[in-house]
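ok trying this again, last paste got cut off
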Amino acid sequence: MRGGVLIIAKRTKTPEPVSPAIPARERRPDLLDRLQLATQTLHSAELQVAQAILGDPEWVSRSSIKVLAEKAGVSEPTVIRLARKLGCSGYSEFKLQLAEDLIVTRMFLSPEAVVQNSQPSSIAEHMFEAATRTMSEAMAMLDGNALERAARAVAKARRVLCYGVGGASAILAQEAENRLFRLGLAAQASADYYKQRMAVSIMQADDVLLCFSATGKPEALIESAQIAKGRGALVIAVTPSGSGLSNVADITLAVNIFNDEMYFNLPSPTRYAQLYLLDCMAAAVAVELGPQSFQNLKSIRQTLSSMHGTMKYQPIGD
């Protein structure tokens, strides 16, 4: 009762709890993990489909929607509803994601993958074979003309930016700086996306962007390469030919190494090929620079000798 007026509050029905939406693929990449989590909230028919999938995901990745529905004892629309709850547009996309995830998951779930590579002697032998095979492949596919053009461009550059992202490629970019600065070149490495973007935005026509990527797919590198080209700089890429990064680059030193490693505990051999091409280019740049580079290397060696004495085979940088 307010001011002589009777106010009757309308009772609203409490909404029924809604099952939380299953995160999209971008947020939880592993489809099987999402499916396992979803079993806690699915109704009986969809749960039957989920259990059929989890029971034999390999079989499901090769099966039609009709066959899966029959095995689960449900209708085909039920299968489609489950696929959409998992963030897929339909059963076709669901099968594609499942097949992709199984490629990675298989390596981590297979115990024999670890057992077969657990002995140090086996690991050493396998890594030696992988390294030598990769180096041989890299040498066989080396484009001498592209190497010569890259070396000449780097030797004449006002500044060389060395970019890579992720793991090995970022380390290779740092190694590129390490190899080039001692020749007297203004080289700078970066694996930070923000810094990369800022630096390429002020490049000039006599600058060089040197990019490393085992796949040629990182958007960060491709975008930086596009900006650099827009500024008139020359782009050199140590990456697979035909990749997104290669298509933007002016010069590609191709690393078309197929990584057929089955075991997740062994590193990719691609970095051997990347390092080989970097060493070839750095040596060619030194020759291109001539006496200037030799004098710089001599000065560095003399400075290091004064720090801990002269050695017969004094490395330039240890």
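PB: full thing came through this time. The domain at 31-109 is CATH 1.10.10.10 (Arc Repressor Mutant, subunit A).
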